[in-house]
Write a structure and sequence with these properties.
The chain is an alpha+beta fold. It contains 35 helices and eleven strands. The strands form four sheets. The chain has a four-stranded mixed beta sheet with strand order 8-5-11-10, with helices on one face. Helix 16 (273-286) runs parallel beside helix 18 (311-324). It starts with a helix and ends in an 11-residue tail after the last strand.
């Protein structure tokens, strides 16, 4: 546009004033708004650095198109313009009295003062309930906003009824019957002589995980919750397998605090420390994503974290606290964890897991009390200790503190240079990766690719390269074009990369497409799963599980059955195939582990952290997942969430409404009133939504309180609605 060119030329020539251009531009903007060219108006204002002025021209007919365009432009702009666009869109929603549209933007901006402002701008209690549902999904817990005596709103924000509503959905979809691992394996379709070692501890361990993932959240299964079978099944496992078996109860009873604690209780008094440790971890797991008033996880786990407990029980209690209180940033939890991180007399595995748990609790906050403690621990530990397989979780714990905070980690990064052990470089790369997670920042992706391209000597530490590969996926995962570009880049890395780089490529693909089984990605991973390098194959098989997690994808189920046949003589890889099968059928096909929600616009930091733990563990699968640290898989509980749409009326009672569910269409900046979904089917709520699907109401009888139909949505009656006479 000529005005923009004139402005740019005059800005470069400092002496020229640009004031005379502003009135002309504003006239053009008014003209554009009258003639449905809002996109051109925003672009013109952006060229003059006046995008805030758009607020004055927006009306109730144009605000949605303007805000959609500004929000979708945000990831493509350099800082600080990206956040300015979000703030302007929020101001427009605020002006038109749309608190449920303001809140996701306030969350993205990471400002609790704006969240409080949105809460106070609600005119009715029902609107507050809708905001509480959105906050509960994102794990933003601000109970101080609610009056002490309003139990119903507290229940919305605490996610108290998540288990009840999930089971109602399962009842509607006729999924309540528990499934056995054999229902998933379908061994009769595998053309081998079944598992030769049918009753081996390894096979039972795989079944434990499959059983836990498939029946997650249902509260019943055929191995653990039945009186007769439960204890028998635990003793069919060995050592750490017993820990995973008793911990699987936490996954089966997910989100159901009352009944879950009753089920777990009997294992807390076991004489076997592994069984006891599993039960302790289960307590943390079943309280994940749900805040209960009695704070039962802290009350129970704090006793097991003290000195006089066996190391394995302490380890489980630390993990349990991390999973249960992820994202809460609570000081009393940190008071339990920080002394363990800084204590150099205890083993490195306890310190590392305490650092990881502290990172989970303070995820994305950049907490200044935690980072110095972890740094100090890295400096004080001997090199032989930092070579331990668990040490990478200390680096991950430090990095999670800065998840999504972008460039706030510079001082910590400088301090890491003082750590002479290779873990300093590992933590530095991982921190950079986490800081820019989901931003789509092209410059950071380039830095990661530079790291991947280096050819290191035999004696140099190659783990930073693996983290850099994960970084490419992690940074570009939130943005459509970036994700596609990264998948092409991974092909090149796979062909020309060093062994460590190749091993991490499937895991990075899993991050980009979590719970989104794209055909091309499945084919690529299937090819990698037959690789000569066992580590590449195990990463690819696990990645297939993550990509299909909770989708019941029939094609992927077939591929995994073929892999089970192919690897029937290799116990390690068969174990990973079984875990992938369990992930695929997670929650009997009703769950997702993708950290993006609210129409893929909000990134849940706690879910991403939960997904990262097993993925980082898979960078050394042979020593971690395939030996004695398979319980790290249970950190996925933090990322698991039902992918439903459930509608309530104004009294917060379940109400059924017809909704169209179809593939989401990007309608940003298009003329007229384009359709938002295509190829839809009409269902009665509650309904399931796949990763790339979107829902809209198929009736005018109700008006939803939020523009994104996902999760819990409150519907108000439409006062202008009249029953259609023809339908009588």
């Amino acid at each position: 546009m000529e005005i923009g060119l004139e402005y740019s030329a005059n800005v470069e020539d400092d002496e020229q004033s640009v004031e005379y251009l502003v009135p002309v531009a504003l006239e053009a903007v008014a003209f554009f708004f009258k003639h449905n060219a809002e996109v051109d108006a925003i672009d013109l204002l952006e060229e003059l650095n006046l995008h805030e002025a758009v607020v004055n021209y927006v009306t109730k007919d144009t605000f949605e198109r303007v805000c959609m365009y500004m929000i979708s432009c945000s990831p493509l702009l350099p800082p600080p313009a990206d956040t300015n666009y979000l703030q302007t869109a929020r101001t427009i929603y605020r002006k038109l009295g749309k608190p449920a549209q303001c809140l996701p933007l306030s969350i993205r901006l990471g400002r609790s003062d704006l969240i409080k402002e949105d809460w106070e701008s609600c005119t009715t209690r029902v609107e507050k309930a809708q905001l509480a549902f959105i906050m509960a999904r994102q794990q933003v817990h601000m109970p101080e906003l609610i009056d002490d005596d309003d139990e119903e709103l507290k229940a919305c924000m605490n996610n108290t009824n998540l288990s009840k509503n999930y089971l109602n959905l399962a009842r509607d979809l006729e999924l309540l019957d528990p499934k056995t691992p054999e229902d998933i394996y379908k061994s009769h379709l595998e053309n081998t002589r079944a598992d030769a070692t049918l009753d081996s501890a390894r096979h039972n361990l795989a079944s434990t995980f499959v059983n836990a993932f498939v029946n997650a959240g249902y509260g019943t299964d055929k191995l653990m919750t039945t009186e007769a079978e439960g204890k028998e099944w635990v003793f069919k496992n060995k050592d750490m397998g017993m820990l995973s078996a008793s911990a699987s109860l936490g996954m089966i009873m997910l989100w159901d605090v009352e009944d879950g604690l009753l089920q777990v209780d009997k294992y807390l008094y076991s004489s076997d420390n592994h069984i006891k440790a599993g039960a302790v971890f289960a307590i943390g797991m079943l309280t994940t994503s749900v805040h209960d008033e009695t704070d039962s996880a802290k009350a129970l786990l704090s006793e097991y974290i003290t000195e006089n407990n066996p190391a394995i029980v302490k380890l489980a209690a630390i993990c349990g606290l991390g999973v249960a209180y992820a994202g809460t940033n609570r000081e009393e939890i940190l008071e339990l964890l920080l002394p363990i991180i800084s204590d150099t007399d205890i083993t490195i595995d306890l310190s590392s897991m305490a650092a990881l748990a502290a990172g989970l609790v303070c995820v994305g906050t950049g907490n200044g009390d935690v980072s110095p403690v972890i740094l100090q621990a890295m400096m004080e530990r001997m090199d032989s200790e930092l070579n331990h397989k668990y040490a990478r979780f200390m680096a991950l714990g430090l990095s999670l503190l800065f998840l999504g905070t972008q460039d706030t980690y510079d001082t910590i990064r400088e301090t890491l240079k003082a750590v002479t052990h290779p873990i300093g470089k590992q933590a530095s790369v991982l921190m950079q990766v986490c800081a820019y997670a989901g931003t789509g920042n092209v410059l950071e992706v380039q830095k990661m690719l530079h790291l991947c391209a280096e050819h290191l000597g035999e004696k140099e530490d190659q783990l930073p390269q693996a983290f850099a590969v994960l970084g490419v996926g992690l940074i570009s995962m939130g943005e459509g074009i970036g994700s596609e570009m990264s998948l092409r880049t991974f092909d090149h890395l796979m062909q020309y990369g060093e062994p460590y780089v190749r091993r991490a490529v499937p895991l990075a693909m899993a991050l980009v497409c979590a719970s989104n089984p794209v055909v091309g990605v499945l084919d690529t991973l299937n090819k990698f799963s037959h690789d000569n390098d066992k580590s590449v194959a195990s990463s690819a098989i696990f990645a297939m599980g993550v990509v299909g997690a909770g989708t019941n994808n029939a094609r992927l189920a077939q591929l995994l059955r073929q892999l089970a046949t192919y690897y029937h003589k290799d116990a390690d890889l068969l174990f990973v195939v079984r875990i992938a099968q369990g992930l695929l059928h997670m929650g009997k096909g009703t769950m997702t582990v993708n950290p993006y929600h609210h129409d893929r616009s909000l990134l849940s930091h706690t879910a991403l952290a939960g997904l990262l733990v097993p993925i980082i563990a898979m960078t050394n699968a042979e020593k971690l997942i395939m030996t004695d640290s398979h319980f790290l898989m249970y950190f996925l509980a933090r990322a698991m969430y039902p992918r439903f749409l459930i509608t309530f009326n104004e009294q917060l009672e379940n109400v059924s409404a017809s909704a169209r569910v179809g593939q989401a269409v990007d309608a940003v900046g298009q003329v007229g009133r384009p359709k938002n979904i295509t190829g839809f089917q009409t269902h009665e709520t509650p309904v399931l939504l796949a990763h790339s699907e979107r829902a809209e109401l198929a009736t005018d009888k109700y008006i939803p309180l939020t523009n994104v139909l996902e999760g819990f949505v409150i519907l108000t009656k439409n006062p202008d609605y009249q029953e259609d006479e023809e339908s009588l």
